[in-house]
Amino acid sequence: xxxxxxxxxxxxxxxxxxxxxxxxxxxxxxxxxxxxxxxxxxxxxxxxxxxxxxxxxxxxxxxxxxxxxxxxxxxxxxxxxxxxxxxxxxxxxxxxxxxxxxxxxxxxxxxxxxxxxxxxxxxxxxxxxxxxxxxxxxxxxxxxxxxxxxxxxxxxxxxxxxxxxxxxxxxxxxxxxxxxxxxxxxxxxxxxxxxxxxxxxxxxxxxxxxxxxxxxxxxxxxxxxxxxxxxxxxxxxxxxxxxxxxxxxxxxxxxxxxxxxxxxxxxxxxxxxxxxxxxxxxxxxxxxxxxxxxxxxxxxxxxxxxxxxxxxxxxxxxxxxxxxxxxxxxxxxxxxxxxxxxxxxxxx
Length: 348
Hints:
The protein has helices spanning 7-17, 51-54, 75-83, 137-144, 157-161, 169-191, 222-244, 286-301, 309-327, 333-346; strands spanning 44-49, 87-90, 105-107, 110-112, 125-129, 163-164, 167-168, 196-200, 247-249. The protein is an alpha/beta fold.
C-alpha cells in the first residue's frame, strides 16, 4: 500500500488541527462504546501490522506516530478498549511488510524500530495484520490495474498483465508470503512464549459479483481477478496461522456486502478516491476498523463471528461522528491549506 508519501503532510494536518489523543486504551474507545464486556482474559497486548492495521486517514490521527499514519480509532485501539487491557502497544505502521517485523522501517518522519521489538516475555496477546505489502502485491494491483481499464474495459487486462507464461505471478508471490508470515509467528512466540498470537485477515475490496467502475476503476473482467488475489492472500494468512499455531480471524467472509462497491454506511473499504475525513484510497474506513475489532473480540471471547445490521448501523453512526470532529479543523485556513497539500500529494 502506497502510504509513505502522505506522512509529511499528515503531520502538518494533525499539528495544525491540534487533534490531541492519548495512548491509553480507555481514551481510544469508540465514540459509542459497548455497554458490556466479557471478563478480562488478556492484560498485555501488542498490535503489529501494516496500513490495514494502522488505518491511514481514519479520523482522528494518532499524532504520536504520524510517520506510520496510525489512527486513534484503528482496530487495535478499539480492541484494546473492548478487552480493557492494562498494557497496550500499537506499533502497526503504514507500508510495513514482514521484513519490518525484524528490521527497521524508514518513513519520511524518521525510522521506526522493528515491530517485534515491542514484544515482552510477559506479553499475552499479539495481533498481526501483515502480508499484503510483501513483494508489492497490493501496490502492484492498485497501482497498475486501474490504468489498464481504458484500453479494455470489458476484458481482463490486469490478469493478463500479471500472467507470464501461463503462471499467475501474484499467486506465486503470495505463496512466498505465507512462508514469511509463518516465520513472523515463530519470531513472536520466541519473544513472547505466553502470548496468544492472532493473525488478522484482509476484508474484501472487490465484490464477489458485480462491478462499480466509478469506485473501483478495474476492467469488468478483472473484478474476479482482484477478488481471487485477495482470496489467495487470506488463504496464505490462514495457512500461516495453522502452520505456526496461531489464531486466524477471518474478515474476508464477514465483509461480504461491505466491499468498496457497497453503499456509504455499509462499505468497510474506501474506493479509488482519497477522503481526508474517511480513509486513504483502497484502505479500510472507520466501519472496517470497527468491524475487525469486533470480529477479533468475538473470536477471542468465544462468540459467533458475525456482523449484525444493528452493529453495522452503530459503526456507521460512529463513523459520521468521528468525521464530523475531523471536519471541524477545516474551518482553520491554515489547516485547509495543509489539507489541500495533502490531497495533491496523495493523488500523485
